[in-house]
Amino acid sequence: MNTINIQSGISIAPSLYPALEAEQYQQQPRSNKKRLLRISAIAFVIAVVVSVIAKGLMYLIDFVTNMSFFGSPTFDYASPAGNSLGVFVVVVPVIGGLIVGVMALYGSKAIRGHGIPEALEQILTNQSKIKPAVTYLKPLASAITIGTGGPFGAEGPIIATGGALGSTIGQILRITHNERKILLAAGATAGMAAIFGTPIAAVLLAIEMLLFEFSPRSLLPVAIACVVGAAGHHVLFGQQPVFAMGDIAAASNTALVVYGGLGIVIGILSVFVSKAVYYVEELFSKLPVHWMWWPAIGGAVVGVVGYFAPRTLGVGYENITDVLSGSLTVQMIAILCVMKFVSWVIALGSGTSGGTLAPLLTIGSTAGALIGMGILIVFPSAGITIQLAALVGMAAMFAGASRALLTSIIFAFETTAQTNALIPLVVTCVAAYLVSFFLMEHTIMTEKIARRGVKAPDSYQADLLEQVTVAQMLKGDGTVLKSENTIAEVLNLLSTEPDNYSNYFIVTNNDGSYQGIISSSNLFAAHHNPEKSVASLIKRRPVFVYANNSLRSAVEIMANENVDVLPVVSGDNMVVVGVLSYRDILATYKHEVNEHEIHQPNIIVKRRSLQMLVRWRRMVGRVQHKSDNSKT
Questions:
Q1: Strand partners, 570
Q2: Which CATH number fits domain 30-236: 1.10.3080.10, 3.30.950.10, 3.90.78.10, 3.10.290.10?
Q3: Which secondary-structure segment (H or E) carries 393?
Q4: Cα(456)–Cα(441) distance, rounded to whole angstroms?
């Protein structure tokens, strides 16, 4: 290590500035585990509350439905399809749309929309902070929308509500924004598990659409919340599959090929459906009326469609079950497929409070059943069944529109408990995902935020900085000042050795033990007495990193303390064994890019970004130095 050691005969007292405790970073894994337990416990409580809210939401939807379509103030389940209002049924969704529009105008605009895109936007742009009012306004607005005939499922609102609850608790508690993100995801996915009883699919949903990471710190709290949500479903809704259907026989190899072709067709349809939603949103944005009136306009279309096709009104989970069990005629399936799409895409495009999952499942299952019927007419020996075609069509539509591949597969498996359907589900969903990937840049969940300039991640990978230790990056050189050196001596030597210049300098005692760190702007300030020791310039608590710490720990210290170099120490006496700079960390990342990913197109962007970051950091250092000198 290159040490500037000018014998000046000056001795100084030890630094009076308290250093960061060495054990703070040695015991960081233990501290992180304690925090993980705390976050997991909070996620558990959130999931319990969300499960109760999910049941309450269903009761509220049933109450509004009974009042709106039957004039009965009861909480018993009743499908709006059985109403006897005649042509006056058109008025009911309009009234619901008016109420939601007023709530959005005077309450919170966040109650509008799908649910998941809004939660994702807050994660990416607002440190996972959702307005607490959404916790009660979203379920209320959704219950009014769905209860007055809106063609949505209850899962979207409860996902948004659970996410809002997790975010609100995260804002109240003293936790990091990443931990708040985990609580948001835990609340959202616990809501999904509470509605459908699908804990595994809910965990995968969090990974693929909200967290974009796979680590214990996020996986454990979310998994606990999803298990609790599923347990709440079993207690409050029952243990039977949500979409019960007859047993399915194992598919032959020929049938798997056919299901793959079906997945391609459904994938194309999923692209059309996704684009249609945002095309309708654009049409509404061009209307010469305030957006508060849009849900009422969309409600009018819902009412007209509901008059001709009553099954399109309301949640419609029973429609999916009927399609999967094969109890509907071809004509009813076709009408439900087309009319549900029209009603849903216009209602959602109007900005009312609704979701995407249940309508996508309905459209996908009906389209899959119709395509399966067509295949059997042309190829009677294809070896497929209408029920399985409907099931894989349902999952493929979800996979293509959202590109949540694993979630789609496991969701269909958990909601039907059909083990023989697993391989056909994989084949069909992969085919739909493949088509969607090449034909659609964004998904139905990310298109809205993409249009606002927010980039949603589409992959997750291991943290490189967590895998490399500080010791692996040490090169044995760096600039270290002795505490007994005077300011004049150091400035004189630096003027003759410009290569030793940096933004920060490490100060040690004679025995090499670490004492502190000083900035170059402070060192070069003109008002200092040149005969004072450099140790007198230490104005901040000493920060350091151990050789066995990860580079991620080093980056966190640099970011928190606003320094671009760190002394690397060892032993109880904290002897400085090296100096780690941000350039060393950037070099590690660049080396990994060159070694493993140089052929991937997006790596060119990463390398350019890396170079820009280096230039930016250098520029900031120069500007800071000049600014500090000018102030002096």
A1: 575
A2: 1.10.3080.10
A3: helix 386-402
A4: 11
